[in-house]
Every structure is written in structure tokens, then in C-alpha cells.
Amino acid sequence: xxxxxxxxxQAIKDGVSALSIKNELMSLEARRAELKQxxxxxEMPQLLHPRTADVYWEEVTSRNxxxxxxxxxxxxxxxxxxxxxxxxxxxxVCEAGTxxxxxxxxxxx
Length: 109
What we know:
By secondary structure, the chain is mostly helical. Helix content is 41%, strand content 7%. Strands 1-2 form a two-stranded antiparallel sheet. Helix 1 (2-13) runs antiparallel to helix 2 (18-40).
């Protein structure tokens, strides 16, 4: 930046139009002030809590071998996991009050 400002100063010494150089210098000074302000600005805050991955993992692993829901036999169910991101779950459908269950199905997302 300093080198760019020295260029127009030298141009004035060489006889170039003062008005055009003044405009260029003002533009360079404004840019220098903008860069200085950017460098002095505080760091961006963390966008995610440091334990986000741990909390997510706890949620995922806490659902292993757990009854998620009793639903009517209407051929449909939507599991609300209250989490975002990718992963997978293994599901089985069991007949109420028995140990009769379907084969395991893995749902990946």
C-alpha cells in the first residue's frame, strides 16, 4: 500500500496533473483506512459451540436399541431425530408385546 501511494507522489514531481493524482491518492488513502480497520477488527466469534460434535454423538449413540415409538399399523412413521447432519440409524419393526421383529434396516442420510 505504501508503495502505491509513493507512485502518485512521484508522478506529481514528474509534472502529471495534480487533480487526477489527488483523486487516485484519495482512493488509495480510503483503501488503506479500510484495510487498517479490517486488520484491527476483533476476530470472528465461533459459529458453533465447541461441544457440538460431542452432543451430536451422544444423541446418536443414545438411540441404540431403544424403543422409539409405538405407532398404529398404518405403513408409515417419520422419526424426528432433532439433529442435523449426516449419519445412519438401524431400525427394526417389532410386533407389540412380543419379541417378533423384522430384519434390521439401515437408513443413511
